[in-house]
Input
Amino acid sequence: MSEIESPSSLSLLRQRSGRRQVPVSGNLVEEVDFADGHPVPRRLQAAAGAQIDPVAWTRTHRSQLRESLLRNGALLYRNMGIDDVAVFKGVVDALGGGERLTYENRSTPRTQLDDRIYTSTEYPAEYAIPLHNENSYTHAWPGVIYFHAQQPSAEGGETPIADSRKVYASLDPVLRERLERRKIMYVRNYGELDLSWQEVFQTESRSEVETFCAQAGIGFSWREGERLRTWQVCQASATHPLTGEKVWFNQAHLFHVSSLPEDQGAMLLAACGRDNLPRHACYGDGGEIEDSVLEEIRGCYERHAIRFPWQSGDLLVLDNMLFAHGRMPFRGPRRILVAMTD
Output
């Protein structure tokens, strides 16, 4: 980064190795690579003894930060004084340049803590959450997602990330073409064993759900006992609107019943049958996705996964199309906050 705001100056700085320092009102912020050699996320941290106002600093350097995010896909604020929800919101608003988004058409439980500030997915600590791009099971998704580590867990709990461009490029071309051509259908049965439709759509009104589904291209049917079933055919890959790069962009490997531990998946299939699973993914024409296809996708994500331990006060910023994210199992209290912008 540089106090000179032109993109060309920033590009020249990127060509230099080692540590770069950014003067801001007499203080310093350093941009450094991780010690393990990963070029992402780009780590921004206050120099020793520097007093940084992270909101003002972000506002001043927004153009460089946005350009860096677009190029690298991931930024990490560290030791920058992001120590409460108000500061987190301020940085998000300064960098996002627009309104924070609400969580619509949810797939996981979470709690709203403040105006469009949420907890990360509230899922049992002993399980991992597979790498995925937020809301890639729909036709509408956030452009940028922000994770703030209020309280890292004592053990585990990392938020792994993976470059969606590399995942796309390294998949078997035959597999990739098949999924792009046939697309992916997501089927959900709400209530009882998963989220209720009231929580997913944040309403008690059936008519509001019907309107949302009609506008979003989601098929639906009401079943006995106020139960709802939905289905939607979506993309397997996407093209980033600003960079023109192809990215792997779906959640077939996460929605599919095989994403569960083997014993749980077998119990669920025995109890519900495939048609009544709380959630499932198949080809867009209704055909079952082969286990070998899903295993290759999961293996590809694993090969490209980047993991690092959270530090209290960290803020991870991801271009939601360029980078997928997940969660590792953990022990002890853990509190990661989430916000999203276009």
About this structure: Residues 89 and 117 are 8 Å apart (CA to CA). The mean pLDDT is 87. The chain has eleven helices and 20 strands. Residues 291-304 form the longest helix (14 residues).
